[in-house]
Design goal:
The chain is mostly beta strands and about 375 residues long. Helices cover about 10% and strands about 55% of the residues. It has 3 helices and 16 strands. It has a 16-stranded antiparallel barrel. A hairpin with a 5-residue loop joins strand 8 and strand 9. The chain is globular and about 65 Å long.
Length: about 375
């Protein structure tokens, strides 16, 4: 009996010791988020506005599964709840296998791997909004008419960094993924997947020079009037081809970034703001099948880690012609009260060749937790 008791005690001790040494299945779980309150004056003729606004509030829950997997869930709350673009919605929900730096696999809903600016969080992007090229051609308020998707889609992606130099810094990065092509929280419609990828080099510390490509479609199932005036019913799929050329250099608290984005492909007439809009398949004939945009920005430290001056040239051409170009000349400052609280001020002179010139004044108060 004593021997049995001794053996049992030793076994329990070993089990408890192993349990203490092993790591829990889920670890490093944390809740975070940020909020952005905004005031904007817009002097566009016949569309003047002067309003306060809750730009967005986001709640983020993330963590790890053992050591190899990272997961993230992010929900956005903002504005009213009458449209898909302003209603509370899931923006991120994914897991990524991160065992190797040169080969990582991500599955779920997350940022499309297109351009340098798209992956930036709004609170880190630094201006009153993303540039027009990114907003219209990277899946935010996309020219195709898809619902507001915050630059995201549902799919599978592989990515990695490799080719280390003598200092141990990687010189090359690649990323490529396949996606539904319909934006966030939406299943595929035409069974044709979007393929999006990018490759960039990092020749010196803080510099990235990259190229991106995107081939896919935007599709809806419903009715439309064809070019002969006949009513058609079924799935209408619009091909989509895009590329971007990007450059960025971050050094000594300065940030320089510039990107050119080009798109080929037609667009739907109705932007999806409600579920009923998914069946509206008529084309937007006014913007044609080409568009492009370019921006260049500089963020300069006036007081390092505290006060920054910023300027941006932001041009977008909805049908790739100068007659319809919209160019914004922007300047402002960002004041970091502390690492979790900042105030952003900005002035923009807008040259809209399709309408008229006007001014925008924007102020934002941003916080993190």
């Amino acid at each position: 009996m004593k021997k049995l008791l001794l053996i049992t005690t030793m076994a329990l001790t070993a089990i408890c010791s192993n349990a203490q040494e092993s790591k829990p299945l889920f670890n490093n779980i944390k809740l975070s988020g940020f909020g952005m309150a905004q005031y904007t004056y817009n002097g566009q003729k016949n569309e003047e506005s002067n309003t306060f606004n809750i730009r967005m509030l986001r709640l983020i829950l993330d963590g790890r599964i053992q050591n190899d997997f990272y997961w993230k869930a992010q929900i956005q709350f903002n504005g009213n709840t009458s449209t898909l673009g302003n209603s509370p919605r899931v923006v991120d929900l994914f897991t990524e296998w991160q065992k190797y730096d040169f080969f990582r696999v991500k599955l779920g809903q997350f940022k499309r791997p297109f351009t340098f600016e798209n992956p930036l969080a709004p609170i880190d992007e630094g201006f009153m909004s993303y540039s027009q090229a990114i907003t219209k051609l990277s899946g935010f308020n996309d020219r195709t008419g898809e619902q507001a998707s915050n630059g995201r889609d549902v799919g599978l992606q592989i990515q990695g960094d490799f080719l280390k130099n003598g200092e141990g810094r990687n010189l090359l990065h690649y990323q490529i993924g396949i996606f539904n092509g319909q934006g966030i929280n939406t299943k595929d419609v035409d069974q044709r997947k979007d393929v999006i990828g990018g490759l960039w080099v990092m020749p010196v510390n803080g510099m990235r020079l990259g190229v991106f490509g995107w081939e896919g479609s935007s599709a809806r199932k419903g009715t439309w009037i064809d070019e002969n005036g006949a009513t058609q019913t079924g799935v209408r799929s619009l091909p989509k081809y895009r590329y971007a050329i990007s450059g960025e250099y971050i050094t000594n608290d300065w940030t320089f970034r510039s990107e050119y984005v080009h798109s080929t492909g037609k667009a739907f007439k109705t932007t999806i703001n409600s579920n009923e809009d998914n069946s509206k398949c008529d084309l937007n004939t006014t913007i044609g099948d080409k568009a492009d945009g370019f921006y260049g920005m500089v963020m300069a430290p006036v007081v390092s880690k505290k006060l920054y001056a910023k300027v941006r040239y932001d041009m977008y051409r909805p049908n790739a012609t100068w007659a319809t170009s919209n160019t914004q000349y922007e300047a402002g400052v960002n004041y970091m009260i502390n690492k979790n609280f900042q105030i952003d001020l900005e002035y923009a002179r807008v040259n809209d060749r399709a309408k008229s010139d006007y001014n925008i004044i924007d102020a934002q108060v941003d916080f993190k937790f």
